[in-house]
Amino acid sequence: MRKMFFAVALFLAAAGMVSAQNIWTPPQPKRIVLKNGLTILLLENHQLPVISAEVMVKAGSVTDPAGYAGLANFTIEMLAKGTDSRSALDIADNFDFVGAQFAVKCDYDAAFISLTTLAKDFNRTVPVLFELLTKPAFDSLETGRLKAELLSAIEAKGDRPNTQSAEAFNLMLFKDHPYAHPGMGDAESVSRISRQDLAGYHQKYYAPNNCIISLVGDFKSSQIKRILEQNLGNWAARNMPQSILPEIPPIGQPRALLINRQINQAYINLGFLGPKRSDPDYQAIRVMNYILGGGGFVSRLVKNIRMAQGLAYDVDSYYDPRSDFGPYILSVQTKCASADTAIKSLIAEMRLIQSQPVSEEELKEAQDYIRGSYPFRFETSGQTARQFLYLELYDLGADYFRQDMQKTLQVTQADVMAAAKKYLKPDNFLLAMVTDTSQTKLNIPGLKIEKQ
């Protein structure tokens, strides 16, 4: 699927469908703020009789209290498990009866609720959405059921070596920062979460002045504004806690954690701190990363480590910018005995892109892909509504998407090299690897190795 996406985007760019002379123009929503501080983003789109509502609460896992990792995720998952007047079955029946699509998700920086429904059914479904947002019951029986499901999911993902490697890397990089723990939490923390903890967390963070609702679809903005005022206008604003995040400690020296498992593949995550989402170098970093390892089969890591050396099937680089600094990771899966060679190749490619300008062809290919793929972020009403929320979450500004494309096309070879020099750390990285340590020998100068 990913290869197909790359191919389609490159084809569109090559075919001139998103040419420099006819750049696709991203939409801009109408922004309204109610008296209680609730922010509303509206975009009318009458092409299909569908309305998508995306709700964002600034209550991601970064707000989990110490010792209660997973509380933010547990809370958002509980919203559809019953309200003061509706059972979980009633809520599910309300959405299923009209074929509405409903989902919740908890990220590091925010929690999200998604609802897509036919326009004719909006007045039936949206009051339920507002009710579960503001009046969840946190029923004891439903809390126990969901806790069992979460603990089962935590146990299952612990068996996956790629997940184990990624979570070990996060813990090494972020240490005492809330980004260090998995959003789902761990078995110990989730086990101690009570109904009272869930209700208290909801009371603390779920308020109109900490919430943004984005709606896209077949409606009239004046009518939607009236519906929101009627349903949520009396939702009382509250003082939000001012959380101060701890400093992320410097790496100090290259370190590796080798986690022993009886497997024949090594799952490697090598990385360091990446940029914040608001970083002014964002466009240059994105172009640089596409060339290095984010561009699939046209990236340098794939061409070298997979195609030329035949060391790995999966190899890439990616970064996850957040409100605070996110991780920048080079990831590879290879035979245990090939781990040393693969890691040295990752380091060599970082040094190469820092020391020599990328070619004009590489630069153009990256820019064409980014430009060609941009409209796919807005392919559905739900995707469009979610994109608008990110503008608010990261305070990017209403005109950000247009500026983002323009700045991407203005990135130069010198900008790419400068971004590589600033953000890639070939001499000062962290490495987490799940492998059979009896088959894995590392010989990397200056690397401090710990085995687990």
UniProtKB/TrEMBL annotation:
GO terms for MF: metal ion binding
Keywords: Signal
Domain of life per record: Bacteria
Domain Peptidase M16 N-terminal: 41-180
Endpoints of the signal sequence: 1-20
Entries under SUPFAM superfamilies matching the protein: LuxS/MPP-like metallohydrolase
Entry-linked InterPro entries: Metalloenz_LuxS/M16, MPP/UQCRC_Complex, Pept_M16_N, Peptidase_M16_C
Domain named Peptidase M16 C-terminal: residues: 193-368
Keyword Coiled coil: no
Protein name per the record: Peptidase M16
